[in-house]
Amino acid sequence: MTDNFALYPSLRDSVVLVTGGASGIGAEHVTQFARQGAKVAFLDIADSESAALTRTLTTEHLPPPLYRHCDLTDIPALQAAIAEVAKQLGPITVLVNNAANDQRHDYEDVTVAFWDERMATNLRHQFFAIQAVAPMMRAAGGGSIINFGSISWHASQGGMPAYTTAKAAVEGLTKGMARDLGPDGIRVNCIIPGWIMTQRQIDLWLTQEAETKLLAAQCLKTKLVPADVSRMVLWLASDDSRMCSSQLWVVDGGRL
Question: What pTM value is reported for the model?
């Protein structure tokens, strides 16, 4: 099941929480942690996709992950879901702040309400999830928090200013929280993925022209898939990266 890729003994039986874990990159995170023998929970609002993921993992004879329906823009609901996960599985020592929505939008059409909703969808929940897990990580003697940024603003991508602003801010959040939580043995890192070929990306935006431009920009002439990012997540979550914090990890095939 793991092909020729690494197994991390430190991840076995660790309690991992993934936000936005029902589909796409998030579902790959859940799958990869389950294969490592971790106790995995994930939050999402996509009930049918979550059930399908659980069924897929059980066909691999893996323990089913713990799924909780949660609208991450509802911070009290997020805090309650995190507390419930910890009650059922034990203290969370790995947090993957994966959830986001890269909906395109024209800057001329942005309202105050839309701007605030995009910040809530792509940025705010990352901080409050960190705030909720930090005490249990501190009590456990440490932990790993992995935030997800985006290549989009690094590449000066237009057409979604609220999203690129939120994702730029994730890097600042990462740096500041790494400093604040470091004395407690809690590492905070940020992954900057390139264009990852999830089904959503393929359906909405991958054209032959776009693919040609993408591969021309990358040093490595192969499209990235979710597992390419998840394997970086596994390493950052494991003790193998125990002295890595406050860093930005780019997984983009050499595009930037």
Answer: 0.95
